[in-house]
Specification:
The chain has seven helices and five strands, in the order ααβαβαβααββα. The chain is of the alpha+beta class and 148 residues long. The strands form two sheets. Strands 3-4-5 form a three-stranded antiparallel sheet. Strands 1-2 form a two-stranded parallel sheet.
């Protein structure tokens, strides 16, 4: 239910676990044992977690900007991407800067000619750069900030 939000939170630097396959009991158990906050759109899961003493947040907003704003308000974090803190949206591991020369064989030629700054996931090896999509990311964060 919250896969897209998971990717946003990871880009913002938050350590976020996600599974669409685990049952409610297992999700609550993981949140409790790892000291995590359970985010859900499922009212019943939210209530079960709360009863079991797990900090949880019921995500009721529809649009991503609204969800991000609600979470930033509740948990007091900035809606700004700091690449030094950002995590891999795919696997949640940290990312690190990497030289263009080291990723030339893994990026499109056009990308190599347009961009200089690249980051690589410490775990899955995914390469990131501030490409054309960065404008949409920035706009979405500005919209979320305006809702605070």
């Amino acid at each position: 239910m919250l896969g897209r939000l998971t990717r946003w939170l990871r880009m913002l630097g938050h350590d976020v676990k996600y599974s669409s396959e685990l049952g409610d009991k297992k999700l609550i158990e993981i949140a409790k044992t790892e000291g995590r906050i359970l985010l859900t759109r499922d009212l019943e899961l939210y209530q079960q977690a709360t009863v079991r003493g797990v900090e949880s947040f019921l995500v009721e907003e529809k649009r991503e900007a609204e969800k991000l704003a609600a979470l930033a308000k509740r948990f007091n974090f900035k809606l700004e991407i700091d690449m030094a803190l950002s995590r891999c949206p795919k696997c949640n591991a940290g990312i690190r800067p990497i030289t263009k020369e080291k990723v030339l064989d893994r990026i499109p030629e056009k990308t190599a000619s347009k961009y200089e700054d690249f980051w690589e996931c410490n775990n899955c090896g995914q390469v990131y750069w501030r490409g054309a999509h960065w404008k949409r990311i920035s706009e979405a964060l500005r919209e979320a900030q305006s809702l605070l």
